[in-house]
Fold each of these.
Amino acid sequence: MTPRRVCAVLVILAAGVARAQGIESNFKPYVVGGRAAGMGGAFTALSDDGSGGYYNPGGLSFTRSSSLSFSLNAYGVAGGTVKNALGDGNDFVYRDLQVFPVASAGIKKLGEVEPETGVAPHTLYFSIFIPDGLTTDDRAQLGDVTNAYFSRRSNQTLWLGGGYAIRLGRVGIGAGAYALIGSTSYFLDLNIATPDGTQFVILSSRDDLNTLGFVGSAGVRWDVTDQLRLGLSVFTPEWGGGSRKSFVRVGFSTGTSAGGFARQADDLSATPSLPLRVQAGVAWEASRWAVAADLIFLGPRNVHDNPERTADALDRLVIRRPVLNVAVGGEMALGAGFALRAGFFTDFASSDPSRVDVDNTSHVNHYGFTLSGGLRAEHVRTDVGVTGWWGKGTDVIPRNLDFSILARTDATEYGVFVFLATAYEF
């Protein structure tokens, strides 16, 4: 391979390969909330605690008292495997510890308590959510011990906002707005050398994205009977903007010649890609048990930043296709204020599996479960549980490390998280 070909290949590598592994392909790595998290996220027809702003603002009008709630932390492990990602017979395997806060919320009831409902009709709420976040920092050996591949990625989005809900008899209506602050960073380092050291390639690449966007929400909950609840909510696509920075440094020697270059671009754009979300749910609550089910529709969304920089591999292309997910869950009261919950949810990839020229290359469908226990005292609720998911699909790799030929390969992903949530009612 000529030095010019080496340079071209490495620029393609720096621009694309580090961005795989699920970025902007799946919707949720874990489930937000306390009661909701234990029920697999099937909460649209209930939505009656601090996490309700993320599921259905209309349900918050059914809360009976003011409260402060916290999902203190989620601790877990996320990992996966990409077949032949580092050449034929060399899989890239990653596994990393995850620690992050999930949600905090406050609810304020206003107005006189109505005799027919037993609650004040007006509700103000504020919420801070981190519904998605992932950090990986992994390395792999390429054949000889002197050859190494390092990959580090971190992404997180903070939702900050609130809204208002009102209860009109058996119907609750609510609306909200959120500012979304996103941060994503990719780092890749590749070192390949012949045993005698006469030929080598050294590559370092880093991309940083920062976005600020806004999402509006509206929802309704209807208690058809004393047991049957229906819910519907809509969350707008995220609109806003942001910036990207890209840096690449390459050095190489072919034995007869050597060279290298560095390239930095700090004037790139980054458009949020969160799509439209519509949720419909049904729930049945009796004296000691409850069951719920949701359908979650995610709309299509295409983003192409800096198309004029495509020739330099500095554009950003994200293609999301429409996706329909489900969530089901149940709750059983066991006495003394203790409840046991379990749930199931899907998180299908919205990426296009026929494309290899996009940034969201991973197409892995996730199937998840939740299990938790909750304790309710006079003023305090506490929930402890676990969320797990596993998925199988495809990702894009350079065929046998020839980065001018991109192809799909098998990929698996998994995650297990432990969460603790508490709320104080007053």
Amino acid sequence: MLYPYKLVVFDWEGTIADPLGALVDYLWQEANHQGWAAFSQSQVRHHLLSGVPEAVKQLFPGFSEQLWHATIERAERMVSQKRDQVFLFAGINSLLQQLQIANITCAIATNKGQHSFEKALNNSQLGPYFSLYRCAGQLHPKPHPAMLQEILDVCQLKPQDAVMIGDSHADIEMARCLNVDAIAVDWYSSGWHPDKIGAKATVRTIEQLSALLGMHVSSSGEKIEQDV
């Protein structure tokens, strides 16, 4: 089977790892346990764009103000306890497995520092899926094209063989500098418009992303995957 790319370069935080994953998972479980409504994790994530207090009010409409504050405090304690855990956006693990089976090279270009990233990568257990990575500190941070250029050089591939996947303007601008296709992810449905700065597409589900890569992945009910 022919695939559109030989190399897929991912951003890390906000693309593979959910920086608010622990909070999303906690509020999702609590909201559905309380039975106010059948919320999906993507709905919880979207509510969090307005801040934790507003999200709690939307997710627990029957709570008194005292219970809202208590829920926020419990959420903050829980997030603090799980600060070293890595929460993956639903379906990411399956997508990486399929890319590996298809012999498509995967890499990471992240503005996280090398030590911080390597710790997160180790905790996530995703290391075997990535042939290489470049971090801020090793090279100029995004949107400077140095990280992506070096990944292309190491893999001995041309810009048309690769795609950059990320959640920020810096990811898209970096790819544009090298004439590499860019796919923007918007897992939080924030409504940003990366197409205006050159993104080939904007996706809001893992199904949409996987289809653009020639794969077929389901989010399996949208539950966040947590590292083991």
Amino acid sequence: MPISRIVKVAAAVPVLFAAAAGFSALPALRGSFPMPPSAACAAWNGAQPSEPQASLTGVAMLSSCQVLAVGDVLGPNNFTALAMRFGGTSWWQQASAAPGASSSLHALAVTSGTNGWAAGTYANANGTHALIEYWNGTVWARQAVPEPGRGKWSTALFGVAASSESGAWAVGNYRTRAGHLRTLIVAWNGTAWRQVASPNPGGAGRDDRLTSVTVISARDAWAVGYYQDARSHRRVLVLHWDGSSWRQERTPSFSRSADAMLFGVTAMSASDAWAVGYLIHPGSRTLVLHWDGRNWARQVTPDPDPSGDVLSGVAGASPSNVWAVGQSKESSGHESGLILHWNGVIWTQLPSPGPDSGDSARLIAVTTSGPDDAWAVGAYRTPNGYAQGLFLHWNGRTWQARQER
């Protein structure tokens, strides 16, 4: 009997329409290579791949006609890492290099058509381990990842970003022998991945998590997530890399009884960065923070249903073109994709299409190369209760998606 799944989302993220855990929200890093006009790929009609029990959690553009996406597929007994590629007219599956009995890819970053990374996790008889796969333009290959505790502790990566072939970051967490989560940051130097010291403001006996990372230069990068305070409330966590160390940055304060978490971060420059997530006080409301070069400040954002709104991913192409995606849960229990856009002045909500109007859906990651070219991915639930990977494309006028029956 097939296993019916709604949508799998990460342990680091609130489950609004999923029954299982394991999702990360990551905006794919915009590459520094040229992007041809999106009109060259107008042949795509919005048709969704018929990959059952799939969830997409990362997306990145090689060009307007070449896009990569990652996630996982639920089988009879476990999850299997999923890699997809778009070639201008359709999406197709590629072979992943993930080992183990179960695996998932949570995030994706590229710097060129022949250089990129995907980060996630896999499980074997010895436990759960961090996973990084490298893309050379043709195939995915696994790379060795340093793990605290010599691999004896559970380790997972939820975010990855890159600036060049010899410069990349991946972030996540590991579980200590005492059972608490600690932040994990690893860096790629062109030859190997190494662990870099990272703050854990929660302190002993509490959890600290990193969910996303973005890089501007070798001396400028951001990582976000959340931690538990002394009262066990979750607080936003923002870390900055200055070229020598990662340090916690001051962020806006919220009510002592509120919980706040960040799941996505992106930056256009040293004085223009965005982080997204959600705030519980009460219900679940969209949370967007902006960095202006001096301070992080909360922004006014739409909340179509403040009882169940979450932002999972963010990406920008310019100071006046930033996208944030996630999910909104209506009072009826129906979930739909949530899309917000920043035009340089205000955040506005745009319609989020689904393959069928009655299907529940959520968006997890987004990437963009310009005002008329963006992709968002996630998953939707069909009437029979199965999850399917969801792909949306922005053509400068509307977001497009449909299901071929």
Amino acid sequence: MAGDKKSEEELNDLVDQIVVDADGDDEQLWAFRQAFDDEIAMPADAFVLGEPATILEIDYDGNERRGLTAKLRREDGSEHVLSASDLIFPEGSKGADYMAAYRTWLGVDPYPHVPLTKKPKAVEDEIDMSKDVELIVLALKGNAVSCRILGKEHVLTLRPSGAWETMPGEIVKVLPRRKWRYGGRPYLAGEIKASRTDMPALGLTPLKLHEMGMWDPKEHYWGEPDEPMEPWAKPIIKRGPRPEYEMEQVLPGEDPDNPDTDPILEAVDMKATGNLRKARRMLMDVLAADLRCLDAHAHLGNFAFPRNPDTAVRHYDIGVKIGELSLGKDFNGLLPWGCIDNRPFLRCLHGYGLCLWRFCRMRDAEKVFTRMLWLNPTDNQGARFNLYDVKEGKAWHEEE
């Protein structure tokens, strides 16, 4: 679709292609929103009132009078939401074509002339080929890595050379060799020299914690009255009532009104049918959309755990650390399993503890299982049994 400005006939054909099965303005606006989501990689460069900006999202909230909206970030770091029809994408880009089609549908000039104050930097212009560049890993896709330049919104595809291994959520230091653009997308070839985890540097918005009331240990079932109290339970009871919370769950691609759109369950089902590669790719696509999807980290860890615990522990560790951005150092509340949105974080903790146990890091595993019990004293994951075996010095076995 990209190229020179399209003719009126070509734009009308593109409009028909987008709204082919949509009836009425509401459905057609949803169709345009889906077309932008499918065809335009975000973040994207554009102009607003002649000023360069980074477009983060194009959306539709059901308000037909307002139509499509755009969330953008200006060069000063401020974020705004405005009418999508005010955007001017770079000439010859897919964004320009689809915006022209949308403006045609609105009945306004498809290619308005707006004086441009300056040209926005292309992704490749942000990379100094004479020195190492740090990239945030978003997803692994075969022999390519979807990345974001550290401290920037620009996304590119890295083609690493030589032996390499990294995980979504890590920061890699790359020695760049070559950069190019294909199909409108930026690419970089280079050697991964090192990787690290630094959650604050990722610039992620912490997951929200929703208050769920107070938990009173006196109302909790701790076993039969004539049985001795488990040692792990005594300090929890002594601590007394504590607040309960539910952690926000981020799940890109899910439609709350349609349970069949859960990408995590789809990936699990795909693995169950023997297609592990496609299952992993589905989870990677979720993380490319939002690294805060803890359930994707947990299930990638689960997929790797049986044969490659070294890989699994890195997935779990990143999931735990992203969740901890929301908890802070002094968190003393509960994340009960009964609040289902807490489960992704608890799954990451559980997998991380099992890996530490498997590596014979008994003291570290003991801390993880103990923390799980403090967060969820109902212990739906059996952390108390793992804690007992770890404290006894029992080696991990596959049946565990």
